[in-house]
Write a structure and sequence with these properties.
The protein has 19 helices and two strands. With about 425 residues, it is mainly α. A two-stranded parallel ribbon has the order 1-2.
């Protein structure tokens, strides 16, 4: 029970604890380590002594002391200079209390996102560092999102922290002139956090509602600050329209329910109405970016009363636009499904052929899951079964694995 409380506290307060340390000490890598030390101390002490009345202040105090101890034990001149530059007081013995955390229109979580999206970093490093430092995703989860080994991601994160240190990056919002350049990276981060919550890459559960809603909360903050930014509006609409399906995506046992079989009366129509309104606001205003296009696709799905009534031709056209505006393997996979439904499965299968030559995609279960579905529609049960089997072996998500194995069994039963 206490460990469950710790997990809830950690998800809610970790960005604020990290933000408090960054305000005072400045170095992201050092502060991250200290916050992790505090979390480990809480996991060891709270089950024995109980959860403190103010868990956030407790974590801030312990993390600060661990950081001070590390600094005092480290005689490296460069580390001392970096911390001195970050305005570390000469004789600090305790961390700031919770009431000392600065406030602004942006909370500490979003301020951390903008710090991690510093222009000194490449876009992949901006996103990966934000997912780790701010959203608290594990290295394995981030590596899965990027389709790279965990060791590669660990090295990338270390280089990103070192780059921020060398650039003298501060825990502060960028200037008005700098802000737009960082928005795209922040949107990518928020969307990846949402995606991990909407469909977890591994584990027992398909959906992490708390993580998905945290991504929506953060995107709402960006939208409130930049209401006329069409891609921010599109990203928020996309998340709302997609998250609206969450109540119908798993059954009573936690197993995946595919879109075609979902009870649409369970969808959250309040989120659909809000998302559609945002799409209608953004699309007529000018340049259409990838989040607006994805949101438009989600709106078409959301407004179809049944799966059979889905306007696949319109979705196919929108995916064609998206594949030209922002080509990516995930876009190709979804485009292939839309084309198969709007025209015929063979056309969709042809779109997947280039992905089979991509070594990275050959390790991704979704390629084989989509191929299996289209091969089944195309009347080739033997090839479909082979692809379902391969997809089930590759996924680390147990609900997805059970679904794929169930489809495999149903296919075998149908073939006699």
């Amino acid at each position: 029970m206490v460990l469950h409380i710790l997990e809830d506290v950690w998800r809610r307060e970790a960005p604020h604890v990290l933000g408090a340390l960054l305000h005072r000490y400045g170095d992201l890598g050092d502060c991250e380590e200290a916050v992790q030390d505090a979390a480990e101390a809480a996991a060891a002490q709270w089950p024995l002594g109980g959860v403190p009345d103010d868990p956030k202040a407790w974590l801030i105090r312990v993390a600060s002391r661990r950081l001070i101890d590390r600094v005092r034990a480290d005689s490296a001149r460069t580390r001392r200079e970096a911390l001195d530059t970050a305005r570390r007081p000469a004789n600090v013995d305790v961390a700031p209390g919770a009431d000392e955390i600065p406030t602004s229109d942006f909370d500490d979580t979003l301020r951390l996102f903008f710090l991690c999206c510093h222009p000194a970093l490449s876009r992949p490093s901006q996103v990966a560092l934000s997912l780790r430092a701010v959203a608290g995703l594990g290295v394995d989860q981030i590596a899965a999102a990027y389709l790279v080994p965990a060791r590669t991601m660990t090295q990338r994160l270390s280089r990103a922290r070192a780059t921020l240190r060398q650039a003298g990056a501060r825990f502060a919002m960028p200037s008005v002139e700098e802000l737009p350049a960082r928005v795209a990276a922040v949107l990518d981060v928020c969307h990846l956090v949402f995606t991990e919550g909407y469909t977890r890459t591994s584990g027992e559960s398909l959906v992490d509602v708390t993580l998905a809603e945290e991504a929506i909360r953060l995107t709402r903050q960006v939208h409130a600050a930049l209401p006329d930014h069409d891609e921010v509006t599109g990203a928020l609409a996309l998340m709302l329209l997609t998250h609206a399906r969450s109540p119908a995506r798993v059954d009573a046992t936690g197993d995946l329910v595919p879109l075609a079989e979902q009870n649409r009366s369970q969808w959250r129509h309040d989120l659909i109405a809000e998302g559609v309104t945002l799409v209608e606001q953004a699309l007529p205003r000018g340049h259409v970016g990838r989040y607006q296009l994805q949101a438009a696709i989600a709106a078409v799905h959301a407004e179809a009363p049944t799966y059979g009534a889905t306007d696949w031709r319109q979705i196919s056209v929108l995916y064609d636009m998206l594949s030209r505006a922002a080509p990516a393997p995930a876009v190709t996979l979804n485009h292939a499904v839309a084309v198969a439904m709007a025209h015929e499965p063979a056309v969709g299968l042809a779109l997947l052929d280039p992905l089979l030559a991509d070594p990275t995609m050959r390790r991704h279960h979704r390629l084989y899951a989509v191929r299996a579905h289209l091969l089944e529609l195309d009347g080739d049960p033997t090839a479909a079964a082979e692809n379902y089997r391969r997809a089930a072996r590759l996924t680390a998500s147990l609900p997805e694995q059970r679904y794929l194995n169930r489809r495999l069994a149903q296919l075998a039963a149908a073939c006699g």
